[in-house]
């Protein structure tokens, strides 16, 4: 079985904490990909649950950074996080409640396609904003106040 997604330098955003988190996402996605082959079923649930828990924490970390750097709660980056989590939870519910495991298998390539685009656009804009403001995730309270809230998908420079 080939990996669903391969971590490469092209996915790196040069922000150590987010790059480490993104590498973990790729590893967990590949673990799930292996678990749903050749036939998805209940045996894949631990791998899926690990990916879901990681993704919840991953997105919460980014949401905290967005709040600290002036993104409005309804910005499109946050909305995308919400949509992905809703989909993952719905897929889990279909599997557990209805015994429908095929959506879980179909989710793997969908996430593998979505993730690089999300990182390149949404997460890169967040990292750019953090850099522009001098925001250090290790010291999240030491940040210059942004000049205006970020409501769209871009950084504070757009």
UniProtKB/TrEMBL annotation:
GO molecular function, one term: metal ion binding
InterPro entries for this protein: Haemerythrin_Fe_BS, Hemerythrin, Hemerythrin-like, Hemerythrin-like_sf, Hemerythrin_metal-bd
Keyword tRNA-binding: no
Record-annotated Hemerythrin-like domain positions: 17-125
The protein, known as: Hemerythrin domain-containing protein
Coiled coil residues, start to end: none
Keywords: Iron, Metal-binding, Oxygen transport, Transport
Gene3D superfamilies according to UniProt: Hemerythrin-like (1.20.120.50)
NCBIfam families: hemeryth_dom (TIGR02481)
Pfam family, one: Hemerythrin
